[in-house]
Amino acid sequence: MIMWRFLSRWRRHQASANQADALNAAIIQGSTAVAIIATGCNGVISLFNSGAEAMLGYRADELVGIKTPAMFHDANEMRDHARTLEVEYGVHVGGFEVIVHMAKMAGHETKPWTYIRKDGSQLRVSLAVTALQDAQGQISGYMGIANDISAYSALQDELSISQLSFLNAFATAAHGMAVVAPNGRLRDVNISLCEMVGYSHDELLATDFQGITHPDDLAEDLSYVQRCLSGALSSYQLEKRYVHRDGRVIYALLSVSLVRDRHQEPLYFISHVQDLTARHTAKQRLREREQQLQTIVDAVVDAIITINANGEIERFNHAAEQLFGYPEGAVQGQPVSMLLPEALRNRRHAGFAPMQQVRGPLSALPEIEGQRADGSHFWMEVQLAPLAHATEFKQVAVVRDITERRRVERMKEEFISTVSHELRTPLTAIAGSLDLVVTGVMGSLNSEQEQLLTIAQRNSQRLSYLINDLLDMDRLVSGSIDLTIEAHDLAPIVTESISLNSSYAAQFGVSYRLHGQCPEEVMVDAARLQQVLANFLSNAAKFSPENSVVDIVMEDRGLYARISVLDSGAGIPEAKWNKLFAKFSQLDSSDTRQRSGTGLGLAITKALAECMQARVGYAPREPHGSAFYIDLLKKTKVPQAMT
């Protein structure tokens, strides 16, 4: 009976043990997410579960009782670990012992390893090795449990690269950067921020951002910080001021973002600080300059109007308000044509209309009529100049009331015309009489009489030239001068002009020399062209050094044929260039040889040229001297209406 009970209990215990073994085996084999591998003390594999098969690609029957785990470990990695064990613990191990040595010593070790699959691909695992012991506490084998950490390792690698990239960007950024704790303490700063505010790295880490912020900007900055910490904002940007170590103000653009942990708790702020001091200083100087310019514009006596690309008024200075009778606010945004009489507003080329096509330097419009706010009309002179602007085309118009000037000029012209006509008749009689006496028609003269009468004859001729100039100018101004514009060969006209003026040049010890040619005919009045050339040639002779040569050059200029008269005199000061072709303008009134003329020659020359659709001009010569030229339309280029 006792034996039967003992056998019964033993059978139940054995059944229970067998059941537990079966359960354990089922669990081990069913763990497909992890590789479970058991070995004996010699390293030969005794267990290779289904998870190991799936992870490494081997079947259990290929390895169990045959191979050790060293076969699917990375050989280089095992060799490196063996050297580490030798250095740190002074042991010399190899093969399978490299994998289990620490478990043998400590009972357990977890370490990342690289497995080599059957297909040769690599797999990163976290391997936990445990030393198995028998009932007597002796090591009977080893069990390894491996988890696939490839994705985790890749993520760690990416994170490491990202951290290195951030640290590199942080350290080398051209603008200031800082890592700021939620309480404002500076946890890290880069060299650019140190240089910006004048403190060392350690000095900044000993303070907070409040300590370097301008007091007037601190409240706004702290308000943004609180809104970020409360979750209302994740980032913010503002322009603020910092205080440099030496006390000066640094203007900056601050960009801040808050970094939180996985529980959404604030970790730190990342701050980017861009130095705007230079830009702020430049803007301040620009504002000051604009204020100065505006003060000057408001103080000048001429009306100054700024006009945009659409022909609308933008600025209207104080003088413009007085001239036109409008306050600036009443004309801003209005078309500039409102300043013209109704009859001129719709004309394509009237008044200010051409100014939208003006792109070059300062240019003058013809004298035109303006209209005031009260409807009254007046004559005005307008100078236009483009304004350099980054985004659109603008112009400034300088307007001057010339009503009184026109009235005076008209009176002067009427007076000159009347006087010239009244003087011409008696002067002709005086000149004729003097010619008769000087030539001996009235009898012989002694030397003293001849000298005095010759002086009187020469001055009567000068007076006659003056009256002729005055009458020519009068006819040009009134539009009553007659011109016969025909096609002419240029060379004969130029040659004849040189011949007619050679005796005059000889008085000054000057000769003429002709260069070049123009094969095409030009459209001119031959007599008036000779008058123009006579003015250029006589001026060149008067102002050239004795025994010098004046060059006359003919050349083809495309649409025009150009005749240039080049002298080697002292030249004309730049300040007088814009008055050369004005009435009563002297080329050199201070000349000690008394060679000044009437002051009308170049004005008549310009007017005659314009009547022939030609153009005259001046250019200085290097190192000294002057070049006067006239450009004449070629016959083949002239509009059909002229022919």
UniProtKB/TrEMBL annotation:
InterPro entries, A to Z: HATPase_C_sf (IPR036890), HATPase_dom (IPR003594), His_kinase_dom (IPR005467), HisK_dim/P_dom (IPR003661), HisK_dim/P_sf (IPR036097), PAC (IPR001610), PAS (IPR000014), PAS-assoc_C (IPR000700)
Sequence ranges assigned to domain Histidine kinase in this UniProt record: 418-636
Q: Which domain of life is it from?
A: Bacteria
Domain PAS as annotated: residue spans: 20-65, 162-232, 289-342
Say which enzyme class the record assigns: transferase
The organism of origin for this protein = Paraperlucidibaca baekdonensis
According to its UniProt entry, the protein's GO biological process terms are: regulation of DNA-templated transcription
Which SUPFAM superfamilies does the UniProt entry name for this protein? ATPase domain of HSP90 chaperone/DNA topoisomerase II/histidine kinase, Homodimeric domain of signal transducing histidine kinase, PYP-like sensor domain (PAS domain)
| PROSITE patterns found in the cross-reference section | HIS_KIN, PAC, PAS
Would you tell me the protein name for this molecule?
histidine kinase
**Where does the PAC domain start and stop, copy by copy?**
109-161, 236-288, 364-414
